[in-house]
Amino acid sequence: MENSNPEQQRRESDSREGSLTDRRGEEFNTRSGQRRGRNQSQRPERRHERRSKPQLEPIGAPSIRFPIELKVSAYFLLPLLFGMIVLAYIMIDAHRNFQQKQMDQFARVITAQVAASAIEPLFADAKMELAVLINQVALDNNFIGSGIFNHRGEAIAVSGIMPSRTAKDLRKNKSLFPAEQFQTQASTISKHISKFDYGVVYSHPIMFRGATGGFAVTVFNESSLMGHFEQMAYTLFTTTAALCLLLTTIIFFMSRHVTAPLKYIANVAANIHNGDLTHIPERRNDELGQLIQSLNRMSKDLARKSEVENVLGRFLDPDVANKIINELDNVNFKGENVQATALFADIVGFTQMSEQMSPEEVSSLLNEYFGYYASCAKLHYGTVDKFLGDCVMIVFGAARADEDHQYHAVCCALLMQELTERINKKRVDQGLIPIHLRIGINSGEMLAGLLGSKDRLEYTVIGDSVNLASRLCNEAQQGQIIIQEQCHDALQEKHTLSVDSHKTIKIRGKTDPVSVYNISSISQERSNANKALINDLIGQ
User: Fold this and answer.
1) With contact defined as beta carbons under 8 Å apart, do 448 and 336 qualify?
2) What is the maximal distance between C-alpha atoms in the chain?
3) CA–CA distances in Å: residue 531 to residues 305, 320, 537
4) pLDDT in tens, 361-415
5) What gap in Å lies between CA 181 and CA 232, rounded to an integer?
6) Any idea of the CA torsion for 261, 262, 263, 267, to the nearest 10 degrees?
7) Hey, which residues does 143 pair with through a beta bridge?
């Protein structure tokens, strides 16, 4: 019969139920092909990948990564290049100072010789002899000018290029002037004198018996004299650059050779992260060899751990196994109180049925049906807690948090009953005995966690709500789904329920009678979605 509710509330509940059913039906249809091809042994591997990714991929890693051979090359090359550049600078500076000193000595000697030759003509006031003396001085591209000046700074005889001088300037032994401050004696300039930027003027007094009668002045081309230095500096710079380039190439290839094992080890580590637990055959007697041995040991341990997880996944529900593995470092033996729903499904008349079957046939039958029921639980976010002979216990909202655990439990029970009826049609056609289920569901506060001894633990839920669900399963008849009144009222607020009966029964171990409902359907949309799920599960 149909529960009486306001019409407006029924329409709103049907609308919400239809939307949820359509979304879950579409999601299942898109993924159902993949679910059939997956087995229990594959699930722990997926869990391992999910847990390992946050540990192996650091947060905030730089987006630009430089190869290690470039870093190693830079570590060795930069100090070497810096040392070579400093050494080249020191050599160039030392050569420049040496050449400058040699130029000064040469110029001072020439100037002193001119001054010594001009003593007698200057004090005899023989200007003609001074002119002849100055013109005899050979000018070239380095030695570009010479002259004799009296003590007042007035030119007596000048040849080549000469700056405008004063008596005060002549007293300086050495001066540097730009080309604009020089005057050219066109009649006496040599054809070997080229353009220049700066001229170095050397002056030497012409003295006789302590009296200074004038000054001998020579002018040298600073650019020409320094040209040899610049050529030498260019040669040294070119040689240094070529040597740096050669060293860069050599160090880079050496770095690649040295870092090749590291790159290989990094690739192996990436393969281990992706699940390829490859053993590294290379053997070395250095630190890299120790690293390779450590990776091999780690790979072996991970392979062993993966095998353990595979075995664990065969005995536990994936959600339970994942929860236990994640809490290995902090196992809570006290458990935790949760609001969840327990579902017990029992095969009616299984004891009599098993008497007519061999143990192999019984095992095959239970494995087939329990496999289907486990799929139903997974589709509705449930966790298979345990198999008790011909009974299966499924928990909703414990190992995996679920706010709609009551609704999912009822939907799972309806799917299990409809699936059993579809399979029974095949069994009858094959001349086999049909199977019938009775299901009891109850929700409430439960204690969920690892229970047992220190040597043997089991993840399960216990509590009065769990015991009541088991009792309701025993009170149910063939094909029935029995839920307690509080669970029915909570579902009725959001969904439209169809019940076949409502009664109050006396439960063994309970002081007060318990009001129960026999659920036949939750909505028409839910029934249509279950048909699609059943067709996919049994491959029709």
Assistant:
1) yes
2) 156
3) 40, 29, 10
4) 899 889 989 999 999 999 999 989 889 889 999 999 988 888 999 999 999 999 9
5) 29
6) 100
7) 220
Is it the case that residue 225 has pLDDT exceeding 80? no
The SS3 of residue 463 is: coil
What's phi and psi for 393, nearest 5 deg? -115, 125
Q: Are 162 and 216 in contact (CB under 8 A)?
A: no
Q: Which whole-number Å values give the CA distances from 498 to 3, 14, 270, 409, 518, in the listed order?
A: 7, 12, 55, 15, 9
Closest CA to 414 of 481, 470, 489, 490: 481
**Both tokens assigned to 395:** 């928990």
**Residue 264: pLDDT over 90:** no
CA distance 436 to 79: 84
Q: Please name the amino acid found at residue 428.
A: V
CA distance 499 to 519: 4
Residue count of the chain: 540
Amino acid at 163: P
CB atoms within 10 A of CB 381: 19
Report the predicted TM-score, pTM, of the whole model to 2 decimal places. Answer: 0.50
The alpha carbon of residue 245 and the mean position of all alpha carbons in its chain are separated, in whole angstroms, by 34
Supply the Cα-derived Rg of the chain in whole angstroms. 52
Q: How confident is the model over 457-508, as pLDDT tens digits?
A: 788 899 999 999 999 999 999 999 999 999 999 998 888 888 888 888 888 8
Q: Which amino acid is at 75?
A: Y
- The one-letter amino acid code at 417 reads Q
State the Cα–Cα distance between residues 125 and 120, nearest whole angstrom.
Answer: 8
Token pair recorded at residue 76: 């060795």
